Amino acid sequence: MVLPHYSMDEALKELRWARENGACTIFMRAIEADKRLVDPYFYPLYEEASRLDMPLGIHASGATLEMYDFFADEPGFNKFKLTVVGAFHSIVMADLPSKFPDLRIGFIEVSAQWVPYAAHDLAKRLEGRGRTIDKQDVLRSNRLYVACQTDDDLPYVLKYAGEDNIIIGSDYGHNDTSSELEALRHLKESGEVEPRIVSKILDDNPRVLYSL
Questions:
Q1: Of 35, 93, 144, 160, which one's alpha carbon is 20 to 30 angstroms from that of 134?
Q2: Which residues contact 193 (CB under 8 A, 6 or more apart)?
Q3: Within a domain: residue 2?
Q4: What is the C-alpha to C-alpha distance for residues 209 and 14, in angstroms, rounded to an integer?
Q5: pTM
């Protein structure tokens, strides 16, 4: 569901109603209500999402008109894609998952090719703050999931993402780089990833993320 983030009281009401009526994910953008997702403003939402066993699905976009205007003459890479990578980085840097130990978060429609870079950068920056993380376990240890695309270098991505936290979707009705209606067949026939892991990406991992 999409929530009215500018009014937290109304957002929580809508969240409960949507859950009762079959919703399984909270749609969020990398910036909501002109705030970063690590802002304490969202803590009541994260608490209720945890209680209701509903993950966040952070989609390629950002709800700030200033950013859209700044990148008005560019395609969507800066204003749509990189904002989500930045949200991932901020969430780990702020140790948000430890504050909400039952919360799961998915990063959707930005591919997964950036995961190794973000993991490397996080490990270096956090080390300077006296905090050590395993850059090959960032996703699993923080209950973070990333939607890949079939043209990602999955063998490389999986070294850092692990086999339990990569998912895939086909984005029905939306004809862009994520609209891979043959994703199942393509992944299984490519031979780049063993069938056991392909099954996890296509089925097991999404079931865990979305509590299906």
A1: 35
A2: 154, 155, 158, 187, 201
A3: no
A4: 21
A5: 0.90
- Summarize pLDDT for 86-121 with one digit per residue, the tens: 999 999 999 999 999 999 999 998 999 999 999 999
CATH number at residue 130: 3.20.20.140
CB 56 within 8 A of CB 28: yes
Write down the residue that tokens 């504050």 correspond to.
Answer: 99
Q: What is the pLDDT of residues 64-85, one digit of tens each?
A: 767 767 666 777 666 678 899 9
Task: Spell out where 150-210 has E strands.
Answer: 166-168
Position 143, amino acid: R
- As a whole number of angstroms, the distance between CA 9 and CA 22 comes to 20
Q: Count structural domains, the chain.
A: 1
Max CA pair span of the chain: 49
